[in-house]
Amino acid sequence: MIRILCPFCGTRDHSEFSYGGDGTITYPALDAPMQDWHDAVFLRDNICGMQLETWQHVNGCRMWLVIERDTMTHEIKSVRPAQAGMAAALEADQ
Amino acid sequence: MTKFSAWNVFWQGMTGQKGWTRQWRDPEPQTHYNVIIVGGGLHGLATAYYLAKNHGQKKIAVLEKGWIGGGNAGRNTTIVRSNYAQPGNREFYEHSLKLWENLSHELNYNVMFSQRSHISLLHNPGAIDAASRNYNTMRRTGAPDAEIWNLDQLKQAVPHLNYAPDARFPIMGAAVQKRAGTARHDAVAWGYARGADNHGVDIIQNCAVTGIVRDGGRISAVETSRGRITAGKVAFSVAGSTSRLWDMADLGGLPIESHKLQAFVSEPLKPLLDQVVVFGMGGAHFYISQSDKGGMVFGGDLDWYKSYAQRGNLPIVQDVAEAAMSVLPCLGRVKLLRHWAGVVDMSMDGTHFICKTPLDNLYLNAGWNYGGFKASPAAGWYLADLIANDRPHEVIRNFDLKRFERGLQIDERGAGPDPKLHG
Fold this sequence. Notes:
The complex is a heterodimer. Chain A is built from 2 helices and 6 strands; from the N terminus they run βββαβββα. By secondary structure, chain A is an alpha+beta fold. Chain B is α/β, with parallel strands linked by helices. In chain B, the strands form 3 sheets. In chain B, strands 1, 2, 8, 9, 10, 11, 17 and 18 form an 8-stranded mixed beta sheet that branches. In chain B, strand 17 and strand 18 form a beta hairpin. Classes of the chains: A alpha+beta, B alpha/beta.
């Protein structure tokens, strides 16, 4: 079991989360050339080692997170909300 | 190589079993080969075998990082079937099944191919309709053994499934392929290795590729843990680690993610299940057969996150155990003997690649998702054909890396471009 430190909920089992995918993909503009869209949708670096990836805490706060994780050892280096400023915005709301 | 025959078994029995020779040589790597196949799994060995036998090629080497049979060749659930409906896949897997049917004779090695039927359970009218469509496609395209069974037929064949009408997903029938079955995975690896070696192929174990030497648009050599080897042509056949080699060749991204898939074997039981049974419903996924040794061999879903680690996580063990109990409650007291995980190439549409690459003399065999074992003979056959003739055979013309650019996805499940969903 991988344990993920959710910035909103604390440390939880990975089975509460859903793996999204490669966190480094930036989707091109809607009118970008087809090749750019092809590369963003279909091509992956598929890194063996530390990679940036997205997870969603589906059975928790439902927030999307960006996680640095080693795909060989499963060690997690960092976790942050996918939307910068989300934590501050939530606190300001309360 | 000593040929296996009834007479030889008898003769060796009479003479103290002293006349058997080793199954394949253990040669030192030469400094140059006409064809280097990276990856000594089932696909790599089959490729070398057909390249030497069908195409008469010489000076072929298979480079294996570990030992023959130690990678995914030994980490599968040994299921062989051809119940695919998409154009391309249909012909490809049918050809593979036909090669399986004659493989023991072809290799003079008993691969213990057992055509015991593959039974996919159906749990609602929609699933029966979808399976009927697919299995009708099979019947029209060379697979007359595709059948849809009603509940009575199924109960007669496999009486001990959970037929409770109040089950969460009551069984309503099954889609059955009768020529499908299982084979002995080690025997397939050893048989192909022995056959390839007998045709002059050098099988070099404990030889990891550590770098690719490029000469413009070609590969001139591969760096290995046992020295530099120059090559006329190179083929990558390393599903699970394809991206790592691709990266060494500096070729950019691939439509592949590496995920791990677990499998399990129980303690040996007396004969219990005479078919391959598959259960897939409502997020559960489970497939099971009984090995000749008696162990129940079964598996389920991926671990749901990208990984290169050859070890599985426990939530999936629980999922699989729950699925097992819902289909075959009689397994409840059976002890698990071993479980393991293998790293698989999950592709963007759930279909594989056997194709030419951006480099002139590099050929690729990758992206096998869950299905590499059954494909081994045909993958080797078509990759050998591709390497020898330097053009894709008609059957594999859409198994190239460019198909997504053409708007083509060969997506049996209709799951879309998310690798982990193509189970």
